[in-house]
Amino acid sequence: MKKRKLMIQVSALLVAFFLAGGVLAALLVYKSATRTYLSAKNDMITRDIEAVRKTTISNSGINWFFDFAYDHYDEIKASVDLENNAWSDLIERENLGDSIYYDPEVVYNAIEKSSSYEEKVKIASSIYSTLKYQMDYDSNSYGYGNMFLISADSEHSGFVYYQADDYGGVDGLTDGESEPFYVGMKLGDRLDLDSDESTALGKISLGKSDQTEFEIYTGQIGDLKYQSHYMAFCPIVFKGRTQAALVIDYNWNEFRESLINSILIMLVLMFAGIIVICGIIILQLRRIAVKPLAQLQGAVKEYSRSKDSARAVDIIGRIKAKNEIGVLADDVSALAVEIDSYMKENMKLVGERERVAAEMELAAKLQADMLPSVYPAFPDRQEFDVYATMTPAKEVGGDFYDFFLVDNDHLALAIADVSGKGIPAALFMMMSKILIQNFAMMGLPPATVLEKTNEIICRNNEEEMFVTVWFGIMEISTGRITAVNAGHEFPIIRTAGGDYEILKDKHGMAVGGMPGLRYKEYEIQLEKGGALFLYTDGLPEAQNTDEEMFGMNRLVEVLNKHKDKMPVDVLAEVRNEVNSYVGEAEQFDDLTMLEITLI
Amino acid sequence: MKTTVQKKSSSIIVAVEGRIDTTTARQLQQQINTLAAETSHLILDCTELEYVSSAGIRVLLAAHKTMSQKNGTFSLTKVSSEVKDILEITGFSEILL
Questions:
Q1: Number of helices followed by number of strands (H, E) in chain A
Q2: Whether B92 contacts chain A with CB within 8 A
Q3: Interchain pair A419, B21: CB under 8 A
Q4: Helices (H), A371-400
């Protein structure tokens, strides 16, 4: 659908553009064609009227005739003497010879000077009949609308010398038998024509122009059949005086019709051309833009459906456009391949992540299994009860607790916190736990156990890892605990029937801090009915959503609230309290607790 | 965590603001490693330091070791009682303070 829209948009734009251009071009064509047509017509008319003028003035004595006819036109028309010798008498008397054919001035003076009135009328009659024949012939021969000769003298304005009769062609005239279609005005008739300065006739009369002048005139002229005239005026000058004007007159309406017809043909041709160009452009557009776009669109649709990049590349490869669309097609093709390889990569990553997650899960289980987690831990020992939990912040943690019998009367207790979290801490924790247990099982005193552990850890500790450890060995029979605190939290101890209290014991540096550390042991007495609570910093430093810590005071308070309960319940209560305190906040640190009580 | 470094002719003072914990320890370590190469007396101004986690202590310990190896010094000044407690509990106050 989209592609058709583009086609329509572009086509509408094209058509509108070409229509506007067409109209503008039509106007220009009309103007220039009118000018061209008129100037060509005018050239032709000028040439023809000039030829007619030459014929007219070759009529010897015509200049004299123009002046003479004003006062004697009736006599001239009335004189019908076929045996007219006036010319030959005059030529002989004045000895004019051949000059009669080329010197109008000599002829003019000769007629005026030596002819009697009767002779003058006869000569004028003879000139008039030549004029009539010449004009009839020329008019019918050239085929102009009207042809007439009028006076250009302002004193005799509108005086007609002759208007050609219309026989519908020179054949009609020379046949001799046919009647004229239109009989023109004769010598002495009057014609009402404006001859002021602004008109063509005026310009000629006043001597302002000695060339053929053109004019479009609307209105009845004499008894001409039409009202719109296209007229050409050609002056006839004699001795610097414009005597007469030879006029060719067209029916302007007919004239304009033929003009408009010729322009219409031009316009039709032009619009046909525009339509063809429009069509070609639209077809080209379809070929170079719309079709490749549609193909590309199809390929994208196909790809988003099937996710088959090879197919998309194949379809796109068939797009032949060598323009921006072609580039776009290549880009889309590359994109499809890119998406494909990205998807594959992503699948691999997801698989990898799943594998890592599975391994982490296994590692977490392994780590949890390392810590004693079966309770009661010592089912055959009734003298004491011990319970511990470890909740890592991540899958695996850096905290650990431990308790094991060194011998029948000695129970080792440990709680530790490795610096950092996650896998590195877990690895370090495993090592620490095993070292401590191994040294303890050798029957060494607690301080020595940690010192030896420290030595081994410091041997290859490039990462500056350390672990805080509280480690103690209890003589079960007496409840006397020999303990070492290597940078760990203070233990919390409760006497029988008393409250839990923080024991600010002696501190050494965390295990792994530096080589050659020496630890000091101290002794505490665990009473029957009393308890020892050990923990890591994840407990007092657990944060709520306002980033406030759980704190030691709250911890001791909670412990005292539940001081009569057994370790498993005490730890559960502390856990609940911490959970409700933390709320929605994320657990940042591992959280580990251990309690032992003597029964 | 935010740090402000002040370089003097004989020493460099790094003022630490906020918390040094798992999320910020690495950033501080990198900064200290860079600065340790430039001076032989590196001082950590702890006026605005709120909390140091075990990961943070590890960074301080590493800094102390690095400076000691090049016969320089690394020390903490103006340590708040909260931070001092943490250092004392872990036993590192002896070498860091």
A1: 15, 15
A2: yes
A3: no
A4: none
Q: What is the CATH number of domain A2-258?
A: 3.30.450.20
Domains recognised in chain B with CATH numbers:
2-96 (3.30.750.24)
Distance from CA of B65 to the nearest CA of A (A): 9
Taking the domains of chain A in order of start, what are their residue ranges?
A: 2-258, 372-598
What is the β-pairing status of strands A399-407 and B2-7? unpaired
Instruction: Give domain A372-598's CATH superfamily.
Output: PPM-type phosphatase domain (3.60.40.10)
Prediction ipTM score: 0.76
Q: Which pLDDT does position A299 carry in this prediction? A: 85
For A463, nearest residue in chain B (alpha carbons):
B62
Using CA atoms, how far residue A175 sits from A1, A90, A164, in Å, is 77, 34, 16
The number of helix segments (H) and strand segments (E) in chain B equals: 4, 5
Counting Cβ atoms within 10 Å, is residue A249 exposed (0-12), middle (13-18) or buried (19+)?
Answer: buried
B59: left (phi over 0), alpha (psi -120 to 50) or beta: alpha
Helical H segments across A143-245, by residue range = 170-175, 200-205
- Measured in degrees and rounded to the nearest 5, phi and psi for residue A80 equal -120, 90
The Cα A85–Cα A92 span in angstroms is: 11
Cβ–Cβ < 8 Å for A446, A484: yes
3-state class (DSSP) for residue A594 = strand
Instruction: List, in sequence order, every beta strand (DSSP E) within A166-227.
Output: 213-218
- Check: CB of residue A589 under 8 Å from CB of residue A537: yes
Highest-confidence range of A164-168, A263-267, A531-535, by mean pLDDT?
A531-535
What residue ranges in A177-240 does DSSP mark as E strands? 213-218, 228-238
pLDDT digits (tens, 9 = 90+) for A175-226: 766 788 888 889 988 888 877 777 888 888 888 888 899 888 888 887 777 8
Q: CA-to-CA distance for A94 and A107, rounded, in angstroms?
A: 10
| A426 and B CB contact within 8 Å | no
CB contact under 8 A, A588 and B89: no
CB contact under 8 A, A421 and B22: yes
